[in-house]
Amino acid sequence: MDYHVPSPFTCNESLPGPSMTDMCSTSTFAVFMTLLGSLVQKNEKISGMCERVKSIDSPDPEYDYIVVGGGAAGSVVAARLSEISHWKVLLLEAGDDEPAAAAIPSYYSAVTQSRLDWKYQTTNESYACFSTNRSCLYTAAKVLGGSTVHNGMIYLRGNPTDYNNWAAMGNEGWTWDEVKPFFLKAEDNGEIDRVGRFWHSTGGPLSVERFPYRPPFADSILEAAKEAGFEISQDLTGDKITGFTIIQSTTKNGVRRSSGASYLRPIRNRENLQISLNSTVTRVVIENGRAVGVEYFQNGEFKTVSASQEVVLCAGTVRSPQILLLSGIGPEEHLKLMDIKVVQNLPGVGSNYHDHMYFMINFTINEPDVYDNNWAAATEYLDFQTGPLSSTGLGQVVAELASSTTTPDFPDIQIFGLGYDADCAPGEIGALRSTGKRTIAMVVGYQHPKSKGRISLASNDPFKYPTIWGNYLSESSDVDGLIEAINYVMRLADTNALKAYNITLSVSTLTACNNFTYPSTDYWKCAIQQDTFPQAHGSGSCKMGPEHDAMAVVDHELRVRGIKGLRVADTSIMPQIISGNTGAPTIMIGERASEFIKKDAAWRSDLCSPRSAIC
Ligand SMILES: Cc1cc2nc3c(=O)[nH]c(=O)nc-3n(C[C@H](O)[C@H](O)[C@H](O)COP(=O)(O)OP(=O)(O)OC[C@H]3O[C@@H](n4cnc5c(N)ncnc54)[C@H](O)[C@@H]3O)c2cc1C
Predict the structure, then answer these.
(1) Which residue, judged by its Cα, is nearest atom 2 of ligand 1?
(2) What residues does the Glucose-methanol-choline oxidoreductase N-terminal domain cover (predicted)?
(3) Which tens digit of pLDDT belongs to each residue from 510-563?
(4) Which helix (H) or strand (E) covers residue 163, if one does?
């Protein structure tokens, strides 16, 4: 394997936006950010300008394998398939390459809401997002690396029980013991002596370590957790999966490593892998029940490219089902309604969509309320990739806790902090905010959601966004889980460790909940309906399942039911979302899909003649 092998020196001249200037609107800050942006771009350790992949404008007419979407899973699949040197692989990605700013951990939201975000909105929510007109924002990156370019970099794998449950649903080969080797294959843990080789590994493409910096208040939260009777874990992906921790992240030496940066940049000179950016796949071409290529849109033109072996959809939980539907694969009635010829009636396409929901509780603490985005922080980061810009502030304080409805070894509540981010100041650089007190938040999420929604076509026009109906919080147990999580946060705030900061719950600004005593359970129930957000871990819309499950879209080796030469490999295949953040599990799915494809190809070359009916 040739990861980490240095390649010939070729540097990109410029990168796509958003530029760092666009991230702050005030004039003092615009100058600062422009300068910082140009210094970041010139700093190879941060921007990786000399190891960027090159996009091709005119793909060849035919490849062996076509991978659609270069996100968390797609980057993995493209890299692993092209390890077979005689396979010709094409990766088609709708977005551009990563902007330099995304590499800076504290600017983790730089891409969010920019032109590199698909900016989805859900519709017709009956139980959530009332304050935003019953439509929830669902962010997903349209960029090489997908949402690993703007995610919070938290490294978690979910719980062994999640995978054992998938296997118990009839998905052979997906128990924890069977998926764990693929997490290890992906991983290059920079703290292996601390976290140990039973749970972790080194040598994989994905760098995992803790951020080099954390604000002292992060340690005070851990002290508070201990005082409140919660456990402290040194590693939530190790043998202590419950408690509060300082989390490991998908970073290397203070710089974000997206799946694109991790898997594709080291192999950018591999001749049998071609990558075409700004190429949006509009449908899979199917002939006689087999996927034989894709149609895509690039530079104002529709084009087609053939696949002699397989097409692998890795376009994420919103777009993979959309592409299947546009290709005539999905619920018959819906396809007819959309005036699309039915190729394969698969009623489950788009169903079973679900996500973790989270809710934010704001507090103030007695700490100077400085903006952490200042010259001192910028200089330290440019020189050493340390200091406030090298982390997500309180975002690295993460807890996995069990509510009263689960067992201690299968936690269903996640809590993480927010605050000490390097955001833009409205006035002078380094100035104090007006209140003089620092605002922080504790975010709670419920990880065993039962509410299920649907992705469907709004139109047969491939450029019209699909309809995302989250149906979030329709099951009352999902709300109850969040209420228990809020009570845990209140327990945390009621400790001497945090009272030393005069931690104070912020005043409620939700007028819609004025009828309820603040803070009471009824108030929180009202507030959750008003202001809860999907965590952008959307899963399940092309569910994996056994043959007897009529709603299964792919089998246990991720093959689309009823169609040859077509697989789906991304978060959409999860039959039930895992208990934790979905990035690393999706990378594991990409690793697993690649193995399935290689195994099938070996089997075919051993047993099948080239045009055999069974192959
Ligand atoms: C704001 C945010 C914060 C998050 N925080 C964390 C975290 O801290 N830790 C964690 O583990 N997970 C986190 N996640 C979740 C994690 O990043 C996602 O679950 C994961 O990236 C999903 O992987 P995917 O491969 O399914 O899709 P994506 O990573 O979204 O990749 C899909 C790719 O397909 C491309 N594409 C879509 N349609 C087409 C088309 N028609 N043609 C060609 N290309 C197409 C997209 O542009 C994209 O690049 C977060 C997600 C978000 C959005």
Answers:
(1) 151
(2) 316-330
(3) 999 999 999 999 999 999 999 989 999 999 999 999 999 999 999 999 999 999
(4) helix 160-168
